[in-house]
Amino acid sequence: MGTVTRGTTNPNRLRRCDRWLAGPQAWRLRAAAHPPVVVDLGYGASPVTAVELLARLRRVRSDVQVVGIEISPERVAAALPLAAPGLSFVRGGFEVPVPGQVDIVRAFNVLRQYDEADVPVAWSRVCERLSADGLFVDGTCDELGRLATWVALDRSGPLSLTVSFRLAGLQTPSTIAERLPKALIHRNVPGERVHEFLAALDQAWAQASPHASYGSRQRFIQVAAQLREAGWPLLDGPKRWRLGELTVAWGAVAPADLSQTR
C-alpha cells in the first residue's frame, strides 16, 4: 500500500526523533514481553536511517529487531547486503508486512509526499498493526535534521505533535512551519489551531529575548514555560526543552477533520 517516494536521505538526519524514541518513549520497548519489533517505514534510497535506528535503540533493548520497509524492490535489494542480526529489509508499504504486531513504526518524509486526503487512511492502516503499547511516528524534517516535527499515534489515534529545533542560529520558531507533517502543513493559516500554536511560539520567543544572554537553551526553556503558563498542554518538561524540543497534545493543534484526541 503506497507509492514510491523520492527516497532522498542523509546520515544522522533522523537523530532528533530517534533520541525521543530512546528517551521518553523508551518504556514502550522495555515493556515488550518479546524482542520488540521496530519498523523504519519508507527508509528511502539508502538504508542508513534503519542502521542508525538499530544502534540507538539497542541502548534501550539489546534484543530489539529493526525492519526496514520500502515499496521499491530496487531499494530493498540494495539494502540487503547490510542485513544482520537484528536488522532486516522487506518490500512493502503502509500494510507493514511483518509477522505479528509491531511496537514502533517510524515513517519520516514519507506521507509528506502524498496528498493530505491520503493521511487518515495511511494512519489507520499502520495503527492496525501496532501492539497494545505500540507507537506510530509520522514525521518530517529538513535535509540535515536541524528542524523536525512528528505526530505520534497509538491504536486509539493521534496523541501529540512534537517540534524539535537546532537552537543555535534560530531566528523565529515558526520557521518550522515548512516542515510540518502532511496532516498539518496546509493548516498553518489563520483560524487553524496549529497556526495559533506557532504564533504563540514566536511571541514567547520574542518575549524571552532577554534570556538569550544566558544561551539559546535557557531562552527556549523560558519559551516553553511561558507556553505552559498560557494554557498550552505541553506533555514534556525542561529536560526535553533544553534539547530544543516541545511536545503538545494533539487536540491543541489538530485540524477539525483530523481532530481525534485521547
UniProtKB/TrEMBL annotation:
It comes from the Bacteria. InterPro entries: SAM-dependent_MTases_sf. Gene3D superfamilies: Vaccinia Virus protein VP39 (3.40.50.150). This is Methyltransferase family protein. It comes from Rudaeicoccus suwonensis.
